[in-house]
Design goal:
The protein is mainly beta and 169 residues long. The chain folds into two domains: 44 residues, no CATH class; 114 residues, OB fold (Dihydrolipoamide Acetyltransferase, E2P) (Beta Barrel). Helix content is 11%, strand content 46%. The longest helix is centred in the last third of the chain and has 10 residues.
Length: 169
């Protein structure tokens, strides 16, 4: 785990080094111009990722209108996480919808207790069909009962996101 300190007033990164395997992360201490308090972020995957420029996840549906996929940075609340390894998470899109987030090349995972946290994701969003097998696998990973898993009989079309980096607040 590596510490990174960003002085937001001048936008200078003081140190950037991330190493380790799939479960490596870095903490970012960001000093606000209006406050002397530091905000700590946990970064998974791309260690150069910052929260600046992210759009709210609720805007994704409109952004995907008429295109197959988009490369973007979004922020949203984590609704659920794989309870076995942290290898996927669901993020709130608003209006009762969510998107499934997976991690590029399974190169990193997120904490299994991330529900309720704010996440900033960088990567590719697209509308995709999730197979019955995947949905059952995901339900199993989420700790659902066998009855709930067996009730999954149809694929689902929804927004998916392949992230190359995640910031957890």
């Amino acid at each position: 785990m590596t510490l990174i300190k960003l002085a937001s007033a001048v936008g200078i990164m003081a140190a950037v080094v991330a190493c380790g395997g799939p479960e490596s992360n870095a903490n970012l201490n960001v000093e606000s111009e209006t406050s002397s308090e530091a905000v700590t972020y946990e970064v998974y995957g791309d260690s150069t990722l910052t929260p600046e420029g992210a759009v709210d996840a609720s805007e994704l549906l409109a952004m995907l209108e008429g295109v197959d996929s988009i490369e973007t940075k979004v922020t949203g609340e984590v609704l659920g996480v794989c309870k076995k390894k942290g290898c996927w998470m669901d993020v709130d899109l608003g209006n009762g919808k969510n998107m499934t987030v997976r991690f590029k090349d399974y190169g990193f995972f997120v904490p299994m207790n991330s529900e309720g946290r704010k996440a900033t994701l960088n990567g590719v969003a697209k509308v995709d069909t999730q197979s019955v097998d995947w949905l059952r696998h995901k339900a199993h990973d989420a700790g659902k009962s066998q009855e709930e898993i067996d009730a999954i009989t149809e694929p689902v079309v929804k927004i998916t996101f392949l992230a190359d980096g995640v910031i957890m607040e």
